[in-house]
TrEMBL record:
GO terms for cellular component: bicellular tight junction; cell-cell contact zone; plasma membrane; protein complex involved in cell adhesion. Its main location: other. This is Ig-like domain-containing protein. It is found in: Cell junction, Tight junction; Cell membrane. InterPro entries: Ig-like_dom, Ig-like_dom_sf, Ig-like_fold, Ig_sub, Ig_sub2, JAM-C. Belongs to the immunoglobulin superfamily. It is a single-pass type I membrane protein. Keywords: Cell junction, Cell membrane, Disulfide bond, Immunoglobulin domain, Membrane, Signal, Tight junction, Transmembrane, Transmembrane helix. Residues 133-213, 225-309 form the Ig-like domain.
Length: 396
């Protein structure tokens, strides 16, 4: 009799490797089921076990246990497998592998393998919603044997994980704002911007061979932008540079910005529009700035900005910017007038100085100090202290 065909061996190897990868130890048990839940005769069961033993013996990393036990119910047979090294392998839906023996082993080894394990899946790993709307974080139990598994939800932030569902109760940030839809789906009824985070669904099934599984869901709560703060200069000289700015900090994801002139959107590249073809500017949708390198008369008008993201948009009121010409002739005449006035003032000062209006009279003779109070006697000091004579007033 020819040995099992590669297809049979491949299916068994996949199932055995899957059982080992799901098991926490180096051994596992496969449950071999018959197709259509049909009973097998004892000779058929014996032939089935022989085929399984032969297949396991030919595998590189797996070997069948020495005792292949036949159950009283011949709808299924327990097969023990062990691995010399642990092989990580995913096959099919992650919990079962189909066994089809195409005309080998007398057509008796027909069935499929299954592994007792808790397996989770989700309908959406990256859900999103707008602020104050509801959102469902799906956690579906695809496979489980334990009747009452332990279900937990955790919110993961930069500060670390925290419980939002534990011991059958909503807690933490989602208290009074969420419910559990059986068996493990989390429904947030009123999402806020602070709910943006990663959430982890954890299911523990003590009675399963693989007793634990988890799924991480990345939730984004979108926030509509508020009215942006816009800055538009009221007047700019012709040929000079000008900057228009627009910013808001509430929107999430971060807002992108558009500028409008007279209700018409300003393109990123002025060369793509006939109306803005001659304009010289740079526009940043991320920073919200509109920079004119050299304004022209045609750049005069009403400008406003729009901040937008996936949740919506908001606009600031229009503001008028005027571009005016610089009067070169007037400036030159003004400079000349000022120069003439300064020249006249200088000439007048020089003329007045020459005529002596700014000179001070000099005092002649010896300076002396007048006594503060007279005593009726005149004192005269001569060069010769010995030559003394009375004045006429003294004689009288």
């Amino acid at each position: 009799m020819s040995g099992p065909r590669p297809r049979f061996m491949s299916s068994l190897q996949h199932a055995a490797e899957e059982a080992l990868s799901l098991s926490s130890s180096w051994s596992a048990t496969l449950t071999v089921h018959t197709l259509n839940n049909e009973r097998l005769s004892r000779p058929a069961v014996a032939e089935w076990l022989r085929c399984l033993s032969l297949a396991c013996g030919n595998l590189k990393y797996l070997r069948a246990s020495t005792a292949l036990s036949q159950q009283t119910d011949t709808r299924e047979v327990k097969v023990g497998v062990s691995g010399e090294k642990k092989v990580e392998h995913t096959f099919g839906d992650g919990k079962s592998a189909t066994l089809v023996d195409d005309h080998s082993c007398d057509n008796t080894a027909r069935g499929y393998f299954s592994v007792s394990a808790v397996v989770l899946k989700t309908n959406n790993e990256s859900p999103w919603t707008d602020e104050f709307d509801k959102i469902e974080l799906s956690c579906l139990i695809e496979s489980i044997s334990t009747t009452n598994p332990r279900i937990e939800w955790k919110k993961i932030t930069n500060e670390g994980p925290s419980y939002v569902y534990f011991d059958g109760k909503i807690s933490g940030d989602l208290e009074n704002r969420a419910i559990i839809r059986e068996p493990a789906t989390l429904l947030i009824t009123n999402a806020t911007r602070l709910d943006t985070a990663k959430y982890r669904c954890e299911v523990t099934a003590a009675g399963d061979q693989k007793s634990f599984d988890e799924i991480v869901i990345d939730l984004v709560v979108r926030v509509k932008p508020v009215v942006p703060k816009c800055s538009v200069p009221k007047s700019v000289p012709f040929g000079k540079s000008a900057e228009l700015s627009c910013v808001e900090h509430e929107g999430f994801p971060k807002s992108q910005y558009q500028w409008f002139k007279n209700r018409e959107e300003i393109p990123d590249d002025p060369k793509t529009s006939l109306k803005f073809f001659n304009s010289t500017y740079t526009l940043s949708a991320e920073a919200g700035t509109l920079n004119f390198i050299a304004v022209r008369k045609e750049d005069s008008g009403e400008y406003f900005c729009r901040a937008k993201n996936d949740a919506g948009y908001a606009e600031c009121p229009p503001q008028k910017m005027e571009v005016y010409d610089i009067d070169v002739v007037g400036i030159v005449l003004g400079v000349l007038v000022v120069a003439v006035v300064l020249l006249c003032i200088t000439a007048g000062i020089c003329c007045a100085y020459k005529r002596g209006y700014f000179s001070s009279q000099k005092q002649t003779g010896n300076n002396y100090k007048v006594p503060a109070k007279g005593d009726g006697v005149d004192y005269v000091r001569t060069e010769d202290e010995g030559d003394f004579r009375h004045k006429s007033s003294f004689v009288i």
